[in-house]
Amino acid sequence: MVVVAELVLPRPALPAVEGGAHRDNGGQDVYYLRIGPRDCNGNRVPDSCETDCGEPGGACDSPGCGRSVDCNDNGVPDECELDCNDNGVPDACDLAARTSPDSNANGVPDECDPRRPGREP
Ligand SMILES: [Ca+2]
Ligand SMILES: [Ca+2]
Ligand SMILES: [Ca+2]
Ligand SMILES: [Ca+2]
To answer: Full-prediction pTM beyond 0.70?
Structure first.
């Protein structure tokens, strides 16, 4: 078994100030420590096993493995990626496949982008 400890920063991240330091807002900082493999959808199948069951009898050969797609190959299953337009396809893959336009090239599909050209707040 592989045990991974990961420090998870609270979201949204503290706003960065000039010089790269974080502003101290006087509030309490909360950090979470995750022990164990990353399982972004909480189904007890580690992310690394969501898309591939691997060798029979191997670390990923367990019930539920190999059922997800990782369309952009970043190790994060599609269901855990940002999908602002709710079409079941991660935004990054919408953009890569050009099913969503990104006229200002900021990585946010135009249909969800409050800053896209022509759209005034
Ligand atoms: Ca999982
Ligand atoms: Ca992915
Ligand atoms: Ca989408
Ligand atoms: Ca955009």
So the answer is: no
